[in-house]
Amino acid sequence: YHTFVNGDMESFSEYVAKRRIEYIVSELKRNPKANLQALFSYAGFRQRSTAYRNFQKIMGVTLTEYLENLK
């Protein structure tokens, strides 16, 4: 199945991953020292590697790079 959001065609899993990463980003903006494993879990990621991979795919930078830029 595909969803049509803001003119973009994406699969349901891509849509869900994007929303999960948006949640993580919003929480990190509020608290850059938040527990990453807890954020991944709250966002719905079961594996850290999946969260990292999706973060880089969606944000265009690694999570480490993103966190460094928040400082």
User: What is the multimeric organization of the chains shown?
Assistant: single chain
Strand order of the largest sheet: 1-2
- Report the sheet-strand fraction: 5-15%
- List the total number of helices: 4
How far is it from the N-terminal to the C-terminal residue, by CA?
A: 39 Å
Largest sheet: 2 strands, antiparallel
Task: Describe the protein's topology.
Elements: E1 2-5, E2 8-11, H1 12-30, H2 36-43, H3 48-59, H4 63-70
Antiparallel strand pairs: 1-2
Q: Could you characterize what this model shows?
A:
The protein has 71 residues and is mainly α. Helix content is 66%, strand content 11%. It has a two-stranded antiparallel ribbon with strand order 1-2. A hairpin with a 2-residue loop joins strand 1 and strand 2. The longest helix is centred in the first third of the chain and has 19 residues, at 12-30. The chain is globular and about 35 Å long. The N and C termini lie far apart (39 Å). The mean pLDDT is 90.
